[in-house]
Amino acid sequence: MYLRKHYRTIVLSDIHLGTSHSKVKEVSSFLRAVNCDRLILNGDIIDGWHIKRNGTRKWQSNHTQFFKILMKMMEKCGTEVIYVRGNHDDFLDNLAPIRFANIQIVKDYVLETNGKRYFVTHGDVFDRVTSQMRWLAYLGDLGYTFLLWFNSWYNRYRAWRGKPYYSFSQRIKQKVKTAVSYISDFEQTLSEFALARKYDGIICGHIHHPDNTYYGKIHYLNSGDWVETLSALGEDEEGNWNILYYSEVESDSLQASQTLPNVSSAS
Question: Helix, strand or coil for residue 5?
């Protein structure tokens, strides 16, 4: 046993449960390694688009286990869960807003913490492609799915050659000029919205690009994803925000467990 690190707030997004490229084992392990007062699921947790196209054949038992972990956090730790709908789980529009027990489902959310106000949104409503050109968004999703499939096979080859994991899809997004411009425009648009509405910051997901930066006075936070970057956002007890990467959290947990004394041998 080791003491799990406690956070005031943790934000997860873009897990895409119901797809083969969802890193559900890793995100479940991540949640088992931390405690938090408030867990914000910021959209695209369930990939309704993929399920609609392919049925539930990609839905695995560990996808269901993810929700059992959430229920245990609510029951044992009193964690409040806020589920913000995204574009891939927009089927929740028919439910939101709704609240029961320690969970609420909403279209967006205002987080008041440490004397500041953050507007929480998945971010798709600020994306012209997903909000105004839905057919193009579906087409792009198919291309992205293919890229992730290729990335999976490419890394099997790298593992066979004894080489470490390499995100081919992330590399493409970092190199293609239009992709870099798209990310920059997206961040700028959300920051301008937050400034106009007199928020101190904005928290989003959607573009699978974790970030913790400032646009002028606006604190821009993006929780990344659990398809490629395996990242989340964490707010500590002092109100400081950091990007949490699965590899680092897992490493810290392992080191902590190894430094604890062996009770059986000591006795």
Answer: strand
Residue 118 parent element (H or E): strand 116-120
Residue 201 dihedral angles phi and psi, to the nearest 5°: -165, 175
How do 201-204 and 116-120 pair as beta strands? parallel
Both tokens assigned to 262: 């062996």
Give the residue among 206, 251, 249, 250 at the shortest CA–CA distance from 225: 206
Nearest CA among 223, 201, 187, 254 for reference residue 86: 223
- Classified as helix, coil or strand, 230 is coil
- Answer for the pair 245, 229: CB distance below 8 angstroms, yes or no: yes
Which domains can be identified in the chain, with CATH numbers? Answer: 5-261 (3.60.21.10)
SS percent in the chain: helix, strand, coil, step 5:
45, 25, 30
Rg over CA atoms, the chain: 19
Q: How far apart are CA 70 and CA 197, in angstroms?
A: 32
Cα distance between residue 52 and residue 194, in whole Å: 33
H/E element, 213:
strand 211-215
CA dihedral (140, 120, 92, 101) positive or negative: positive
Q: Measured in whole angstroms, how far is the alpha carbon of residue 113 from the centre of its chain?
A: 20
36: left (phi over 0), alpha (psi -120 to 50) or beta: beta
First to last CA, the chain: 17
Q: What is the pLDDT of residues 207-264, one digit of tens each?
A: 888 999 999 999 999 999 999 889 999 999 999 999 999 988 877 666 655 554 443 4
| pLDDT one-digit tens code per residue, 91-109 | 888 888 899 888 999 999 9
